[in-house]
From TrEMBL:
This is Alpha-1,6-mannosyltransferase mnn11. Gene3D superfamilies: Spore Coat Polysaccharide Biosynthesis Protein SpsA, Chain A (3.90.550.10). Pfam families: Glyco_transf_34 (PF05637). The keyword Glycosyltransferase applies. Belongs to the glycosyltransferase 34 family. InterPro entries: Glyco_trans_34 (IPR008630), Nucleotide-diphossugar_trans (IPR029044). Keywords: Glycosyltransferase, Transferase. It comes from the Eukaryota. PANTHER family: ALPHA-1,6-MANNOSYLTRANSFERASE MNN11-RELATED. Transmembrane segments: none annotated.
């Protein structure tokens, strides 16, 4: 019986690529992989850090020129020309005394997408931040108010860090009398960028202060968000703000509530703290509902008083 013999081995190796040619290609491949990996990590590092070094993205601190901008929005459908002119005169004279600037807007200047005209105050404040990027603070004061004490400067009367720390109401209900959401107890004046008061109904947005800066821009943009304007709150931007500060700790963490008469006294005491001589401002909160000429009539005694005070100062 014959068996098949195994094939004979050959001493001639198969035609593999010579060793001398393999090494350069392998090294080139490894070098290419290392280069691509290094480029990837450098790109990631650049993207993460370019905001700190790029001159256009770096945020400058305001210089304080002007120190304060006083913002007021007018509704010519509710107030007569004589009354509005007296408010403008009041703001201009106060600003002139302290080197401030004024910013006046009218209901109808901005597209509110069908929201009530009272929302104009929020977008006007945002506009003023853009127009006066060097200002330290913006003080919104409603059209139904007069500055009464020309001696008081916002940056000294309220915004000095140590003084604001003492003025802040801590662990205090945001919406009186018994809101479970309260102002933080650990904050100091240097932590605060938004200052306002309360009356008997809740937060009062007729007179408030915003510190200029990235947070101030963020806050006003948040407040003016279309979702809040579309909610149809009973008191429009006021109730929207109460919602925001109670449900967004980022806002609550920069907020300070101070005594009403420090910033927002009322001409009558049925809705809040009544004005007394020496207070910085007075608001005629009920005059619009009393009739077309009621505001101008009620304002006469305060107009005479502030003009006398400003003349003496």
């Amino acid at each position: 019986m014959h068996f098949a013999l195994p094939p004979r081995k050959t001493s001639i190796p198969p035609p593999y690529m010579p060793r001398s040619n393999r090494l350069p290609m392998l090294r080139r491949s490894r070098f290419k992989l290392i280069a691509i990996t290094g480029l990837f990590f450098l790109t990631v590092i650049y993207l993460l850090t370019r905001g700190n070094g790029h001159p256009k993205l770096k945020k400058r601190m305001p210089t304080g020129n002007p120190p304060v901008v006083v913002v007021t929005v007018f509704d010519e459908a509710k107030y007569g020309k004589g009354y509005i002119d007296s408010i403008k005169e009041n703001r201009i004279e106060y600003a002139k005394k302290h080197g401030y600037q004024t910013f006046f807007a009218n209901v109808g200047d901005y597209d509110l997408k069908g929201a009530p005209g009272s929302w104009t105050k929020v977008v006007a404040m945002r506009h003023a931040l853009t127009k006066y990027p060097e200002a330290y603070f913006l003080w919104y004061l409603d059209q139904n108010a007069f500055v009464m004490n020309p001696q008081l400067k916002i940056e000294d009367h309220i915004m000095k860090t140590a003084k604001l720390t003492d003025l802040m109401k801590k662990d205090h209900p945001v919406v009186p009398p018994d809101s479970i959401i309260k102002t933080f107890s650990h904050l100091t004046g240097q932590d605060v960028d938004f200052i306002l008061t309360q009356d008997k109904d809740g937060l009062s947005v007729g007179s408030f202060i915003v510190r200029n800066g990235e947070w101030g821009e963020f806050f006003l943009d948040t407040w003016f968000d279309p979702i809040y304007r579309s909610y149809n709150f009973q008191k429009a931007e006021t109730h929207a703000l109460e919602h925001i500060v109670q449900w967004h700790p980022t806002i609550l963490a920069r907020l300070a509530i101070i005594d009403q008469r420090l910033l927002n006294s009322y001409s009558q005491g049925n809705k809040g703290d009544q004005y007394k001589d020496g207070d910085i401002a007075v608001r005629l909160v009920d005059c619009v509902s009393a009739g077309a000429n009621a505001c101008e009539t009620e304002s006469q005694r305060f107009v005479q008083q502030w003009r006398t005070s400003f003349g003496k100062s």
